[in-house]
Predict the 3D structure of the following.
Amino acid sequence: MELIQGDRNSVYRLLGAEEQMLWLGDIAHPMHFAMTAQIEGKFSIEQLKQALALVQQQHPLLRVRIALDEAGQPCFVEADTSIPVRVVQRQGEQHWQREVERELSIPFVFWEAPLVRVVLLHSTDVSELILTCYHPISDGMSAAYLIRDILQAIAIPETNTNSLPLPASLEDLVPRRTDENRLPLQPTANTRIRKQAELTQRSQLHTQNSDFRDCLYSGSLSKETTTLLISRCRHEQTTVHGAICAAFLLALIRQNSSAQPQILKCFSAINIRRYLIPPVGEDVGLYVSAELTSHTLTADARLWDVARSLKQQLNRGMASDTIFRGIPQVEVWMSENPSPSQVLEGMLEEYGCDLLVANLGRLTLAQKFGDLELQAIYGPATITGMEKKAMLAVATLGDRLFFVLVCPDSLTTLGTAENLKKDAIQLLNAAIETQGEGLDRTLP
């Protein structure tokens, strides 16, 4: 880890408070994520590399590393380094899951650019493209847009030639009251020295000990089942997100033999791009918030009741006067110069949950790119850092819903992870009265 050296024009900007929080948290425990696209059609490795070069030139944050300035503040610094590509021969339908597990086990080194990497599971007819991103530079929607841009650049290279402006930090786009000012993040000299020492020590330890093996399970709903689910959610006055969360929360309850009511908490990542001023369109950056909902449940609770409760709690948290309430708190926290371990502990205390859910919703992405077709998208998959806690990533592409369930070894070795997935699917099928018809299981 180093101070900024060389050309000062290579410094893009300071990290925003939320970017800085995830930067520090990632030093204590990996927080990067992976998105997987299943692609039908033929393309060469050289075509992919050329497309990545075009997309990297288009999006500024794909060209950065992080370094400290003279005041000890982290900055995005431009570096001329190509996006690395690891190519493996595709070995079957489930192969990509093992490669995502591997990617999640390998942390980023924040002072080395770029903070994104690609794995291609290559075959003549069907391939999987795994895009792994460092969280301070990207959210799940950013990764979905990047996958689209990469496929577009493969199909029509001349379409991705313009470099976009540097995306602003989330804090610069938040509507604020006239009496509300942003706090400067200026550490003292002693704090800077302590921070540099800890960052260096922890980062070296972090890169040497990447034993973060979680297991990934995937699934999808057929077009018919997805359509039925959407229709039934409207009838029940809730959302697909509410129904999916409810199914997995109830599946978690069923893993416990206790008949007593249990309180389960669900973490929902929230896309806040449209709430910002000006609204953020398809920029690659970090534009997410989070809400924590609480549910007192028994094994016989009705899925639709849980789904409605979750929707109501989320709606309260996403009201115009509350959706940004956490941002000033993060700014205050970062102004106090917490250590990586303090940030991780604080995040786990604030957002500790039984289930972490990232739902990208219905993606408005094209699926045809010349001779290529985007058949499926899975992610954003990450590891929670919480013992025996699962992470669920959901995305709807075209008329199909795809999901991945990431479970720590503690759940996998207990044999509960596969049962968790199966129970949740059974609950969903029962709730929409399809008796399992139309469900595609991507695991044997």
